[in-house]
Write a structure and sequence with these properties.
The protein is mostly helical and about 1100 residues long. About 70% of the residues lie in helices and about 0% in strands. Helix 39 packs antiparallel against helix 40. This is Mitochondrial group I intron splicing factor CCM1.
């Protein structure tokens, strides 16, 4: 056993309290079992010591080591360190004394695949002592074939470790010797210093360690000639991450205190001019604009303080300050800052000004600034042309772009890839494939000698934009295949990983899972499986509810990231996967397992142990994770986002959805307040926010008799290039109009259903005019999500207006369209057999909605019950799961048909979709009966007269409990401990309310109320169950063979029907007794009201000795 493990306090104890069900073979399960149980860990290490290696054992050990390493990168606890270190020790050092068999060599090779990552882990944890004992002997051994890697060089040179009090130590002299080596290139030396700074700062244990690393980093720069600290040119990009980490605030330190500390460190090593250079370099590297502005303001104050020195502020500082304001969308402030420093103006800043005009969508200002450059005699550079041309390409201004291109050629300026990108993009806007291809060919001819692979791939991706506008998947695949073939034959880089990611997203939108798998296989074979590809793949797997495959893709994406297992964008998807997995899972153990995995990511986010880039998306997902169960916690996350100044629309959307579901004055008022806050912060707002906002305005319009919602609708139309009035001419729409269109449908439908009057036309005219504009802008080839949105919203509208004939025609078209997509999806599914395929929620939900509207039409038209059977057959054929209410409607109508041979279909529906909920509810009532008898036994044996006097015959009769019989049945032992153990199990399975024996004794009515039920629509109500049982008896007519066949084919359903017959009699007697105490209302009583009346009646019975 390896004894070199230092005692380290865990950052957070891991408790794997549950295991997934056996049908899910999750890759972490065995590792978690080992870590959770000391006995299992000891057994596992003994198993390694025996060296009885088989192919299966090699796979197990290799997988466990790899998974433990992944867990350790997030939670480096003593337990997981022990597992890693002892595994390595047993395989390489202990078994090394024995003769290496072929199998042992295989086992070693399996672990060596993760050697470098293991070394990096030891460096991060400052475990050089462990490295010396575990890795170094293998490299120094004469018989070893293990080669020294770059990770070994880093470990042996830095020697990161801790002293006796836990402080950071490293070998400065060895590092200096390495940096002075002439055999090491300058880029490699800079890379070495960057790694040192990153590892030190990302894994520092306290503030003193952080500043020690920062000072050492600055000090060591002198040995590579970089003590000037001016890192604003491309050759110094290697230092960007280090500069970001240095500039970011350590926990508990104010910005001014931190900047002052940095100033003291630098000026203790170099002269003050180096500190100014550092500030400029920092601004060039920072991603977060608010932090950039802090450093800008600090340097500006320094400029004011040293007014006599002219070189404190420079044109680069102004550029970075302007760019930070641009990122915050403070466009007017950008122009103001630029005008305030005329002596610092430079051509580089013109690019920012042009970008401001482009992002502000102020095309006139864009062209005006461009033309002003001519007026000042400053002829625009080619990059200025590119910004302007690409800006107006997004509105399809082909003629203007070609005019600028000819102007460029007349000035004999060589066009860049960005120029051709604008030319191609303007034709993509107009769906002109021929012209777009022409400009692509022109690019290849004009810059053939100096083609940049990345640029070529980007321009080729523009051709795919045309294909991605269509739902013709085969067209996009054909273009991809032909391009890949040319790439393989010629070596020209036409396809890159970014394009592969875009293609996977496109196929995802079109539900082409088989094609996604094929494209990914082709990409992986050509080493194009980048992080972006795995992100796109994960998104697809989540949408198709392939959660385990999504988990695999997440792991692969983290592995190929620049800094493995630190990427916020990947963690965002992983948390989303867990959130959807949890909702979709029916297995309680799996739910617990997934929930715990999700909390591990939440913990990492709270500890800020991941990259800041893409952090905004992760916080958005965190809000979604918390908002259902802990609204206050979701608000805390929003406050943290505000504090970090990375607010986006996505952080508000979950709250807007929550407030709209309240459907009351307070909720709609909160929506208004949230919108005002978003507008004041100048956040980019999409139609999704406006969808919630118009609901709010409609609510207030109805109260106040106003038309604010119509004014908002007019503004939304105008923003999206649409018109309310048929006589007005529509304007150009944004390039993402297709993405906004589904929510526009929902907004229009919501407004029309509200009956708020508009000023121009009838609501039916408004709808028709809106749909006509969609056809003009998007053509007849509408994307799937938009077609589905139109079917849903227009069907809802026509049904609400009573236009059922038109509604039914549209519903049938919608169902046929979705069924066509479903047939292709099921037939081409690459993983599962047909009966096991889960239809994605994005297709199930609209199908159910259309079925709901279809049933309204069938019921109103008095069409025969056979129509309901047809709907069921179609849904069943296409693997669509309807709602429990819809299945009950179908069953009721099938039972009206004279054909008794349909009874097996009814039972099949129950067995597949309804009886599970009923059986769960039956088990709940059986548990309550068992607990009632158990606690009654306890009360009688302990002479708890208070409880016995409170208990009453109503409960005892319902639960069939006789206190005289129960008193003598307890076999012996600690009944109190036994009850508490059973209550713990009950809490975990049913309530999670923390019931204890004391709580039950104090609130027996609340705990034992027979009206308790599960919140699910997927169950049989007692009335329908009785009706089905009567038809089953008629179907069998005393034929026992028929009855046995039904029990074999539908065991749970038949079991429940027979149980329900007995239970219903007992329950009917209970209801009669409750009705005697409190009479039922004259109107129909819902389940919630009935449960409340039962509770009140039992409370009366408890206090009234005359009621027994």
């Amino acid at each position: 056993m390896y004894e070199g493990l230092p005692k380290v306090e865990p950052r957070r104890p891991i408790q794997f309290t549950s295991k997934p069900s056996l049908r899910i073979e999750h890759r972490y399960t065995l590792v978690q079992n080992i870590l959770h149980d000391e006995y299992v860990l000891e057994s596992y290490l003994n198993f390694l010591e025996t060296v009885h290696t088989t192919k299966a054992n090699i796979d197990i050990v290799g997988t466990n080591f790899r998974n433990a390493l992944e867990i350790a990168s997030q939670y480096p606890t003593p337990e997981v360190k022990s597992l890693l270190f002892n595994t390595w020790y047993q395989v390489f050092l202990r078994s090394g004394s024995k003769q290496d068999t072929f199998k042992i060599i295989q086992l070693k090779n399996e672990l060596l695949l993760n050697k470098d990552r293991f070394i990096h882990f030891m460096m991060n944890e400052r475990e050089y002592n462990s490295y010396e004992k575990l890795i170094l002997p293998l490299l120094s051994s004469e018989n070893s074939s293990i080669e020294k890697s770059y990770a070994d060089i880093l470990a042996q040179t830095m020697r990161l470790d801790t002293d006796s009090v836990g402080g950071l130590i490293f070998d400065r002299e060895r590092m200096i010797l390495y940096l002075k080596k002439s055999s090491v290139s300058l880029p490699d030396k800079r890379r070495f210093l960057d790694i040192f700074a990153r590892k030190g700062l990302l894994h520092s244990s306290d503030i003193d360690d952080s500043y020690y690393i920062i000072r050492s980093f600055f000090d060591l720069l002198r040995f590579v000639g970089d003590e000037h600290l001016d890192f604003t040119t491309p050759k110094y990009n290697v230092y960007k991450t280090s500069l970001q980490l240095i500039a970011e605030l350590p926990s508990g330190i104010e910005i001014e205190e931190h900047v002052t500390k940095l100033k003291q460190i630098i000026e203790s090593l170099y002269d003050s001019s180096r500190y100014r250079n550092f500030l400029t370099s920092t601004m060039s590297a920072l991603i977060i604009p608010s932090l950039t502005l802090h450093y800008w303001e600090h340097k500006y104050r320094l400029h004011r303080l040293l007014e006599g020195e002219s070189d404190v502020l420079n044109y680069k500082d102004l550029k970075y300050g302007m760019n930070a304001l641009r990122k915050q969308k403070k466009y007017e402030d950008v122009l103001k800052l630029y005008k305030n420093f005329p002596t610092l103006h430079h051509d580089d800043q013109i690019e920012i000004l042009l970008q401001v005009s482009e992002e502000f969508k102020d095309w006139k200002l864009l062209q005006q600034q461009f033309e002003e450059m001519y007026g000042r005699g400053q002829l625009p550079f080619v990059n200025h042309y590119a910004i302007v041309m690409n800006g107006i390409a997004s509105i399809g201004a082909r003629e203007q772009i070609e005019k600028l291109y000819h102007q460029l050629m007349k000035r004999k300026i060589k066009p860049t890839p960005a120029i051709f990108a604008a030319l191609i993009n303007s034709n993509v806007f107009h769906d002109d494939e021929e012209k777009a291809t022409y400009w692509f060919n022109q690019y290849q001819q004009n810059v053939q000698d100096e083609q940049n692979n990345a640029s070529l791939a980007y321009l080729y991706s523009l051709l795919f934009k045309l294909k991605f506008k269509s739902t013709n998947v085969n067209g996009a695949l054909s273009l991809f295949t032909s391009a890949l073939d040319i790439q393989d034959r010629t070596g020209s880089q036409l396809i890159d990983s970014d394009l592969v990611a875009q293609l996977i997203k496109y196929l995802n939108d079109n539900y082409a899972l088989r094609d996604i798998e094929h494209i990914f296989k082709l990409a992986k074979e050509r080493d194009m499986d980048s992080k972006e590809v795995y992100i796109a793949l994960t998104q697809a797997y989540i949408r198709f509810e392939e959660f385990e495959r999504a988990e695999w893709a997440v792991h692969e994406g983290q592995s190929v990231s620049d800094v493995p297992f630190r990427g916020s964008d990947i963690y965002t998807l992983q948390l989303r996967n867990y959130r959807h997995w949890y909702k979709a899972s029916l297995d309680p153990n799996m739910k617990d397992f997934v929930h715990e995995k999700a909390w591990q990511i939440v913990y990492l986010a709270e500890k800020h142990e991941m990259s800041r880039k893409y952090l905004a998306g992760l916080y958005s997902e965190l809000i979604r994770f918390h908002i259902r169960s802990d609204f206050d916690k979701a608000l805390e996350v929003l406050d943290e986002v505000k504090k970090q100044k990375i607010l986006e629309e996505g952080h508000f959307i979950p709250f807007l959805s929550h407030y709209s579901k309240l459907d009351n004055f307070e909720g709609y008022h909160q929506i208004m307040d949230s919108y005002r806050e978003m507008a004041s912060l100048r956040l980019k707002i999409t139609t999704l926010t406006y969808y919630y906002l118009i609901q709010s305005l409609i609510h207030f319009d109805k109260i106040r008799g106003e038309r604010s919602s119509f004014k908002l609708l007019s503004s939304i139309f105008e923003l999206n290039g649409l018109t309310i009035d048929e006589t007005d001419k529509p304007s150009a729409s944004e390039s993402n109009f297709k993405n906004e269109a589904p929510n526009l449908c929902r907004i229009v439908c919501r407004f029309v259903l509200s009956d708020v009057k508009n000023l121009y036309m009838s609501n039916s005219q408004l709808v028709n005019h809106f749909l006509d504009q969609l056809k003009v802008k998007l053509g007849s080839n509408l994307p799937i999500n938009l077609r589905i949105a139109i079917y849903q919203e227009m069907s809802r509208l026509y049904v609400s207006q009573g236009n059922l004939a038109l509604a039914e025609r549209l519903i049938d078209s919608g169902l046929n369209d979705i069924e066509k997509i479903l047939r292709t999806y099921v037939e081409n599914h690459p993983f599962s057999q047909k009966e096991l395929i889960v239809i994605p929620f994005g297709l199930q939900k609209p199908y159910r909605d259309l079925v709901k509207f279809k049933f309204i039409c069938i019921g109103h038209n008095s069409e025969g019950p056979a129509n309901y059977l047809t709907v069921y057959n179609n849904s069943n054929m296409n693997n669509v799961r309807l709602t429990g209410e819809q299945y009950r409607i179908i069953i009721k109508n099938i039972l009206l048909l004279p054909n008794e041979e349909l009874i097996p279909i009814v039972l099949d529906i129950c067995e597949k979709y309804l009886v599970r909920g009923s059986m769960i509810e039956r088990n709940l009532h059986k548990h309550l009966q068992y607990m009632y008898k158990l606690i009654l036994t306890y009360a009688s044996r302990h002479d708890n007269h208070e409880f016995l006097s409170k208990s009453f015959d109503i409960f005892s009769r319902f639960y069939d409990a006789d206190i005289n019989v129960l008193r003598n049945r307890w076999p012996g032992g600690d009944i109190r401990a036994f009850i508490n153990r059973k209550l713990d199990e009950f809490n975990h399975t049913w309530h999670r309310r923390g019931w204890t024996l004391e709580k039950v004794m104090n609130s027996p009515i609340k705990f034992f109320n027979p009206e308790q039920s599960i919140y699910s629509s997927n169950k049989l109500d007692s009335g329908l169950a009785n009706r089905i049982l009567k038809e089953v008896k008629r179907y069998c007519r005393g034929n026992k063979m028929r009855a046995f066949e039904l029990m074999d084919d539908f065991p749970d359903t038949m079991d429940f029907l027979l149980y329900d017959q007995i239970s219903r009699f007992r329950y009917r007697l209970f209801r009669k007794e409750i009705d005697k105490i409190i009479s039922p209302p004259d109107t129909k009583e819902n389940l919630k009201d009935r449960a409340m009346r039962t509770f009140e009646a039992l409370s009366i019975a408890k206090d009234d000795p005359n009621i027994r």
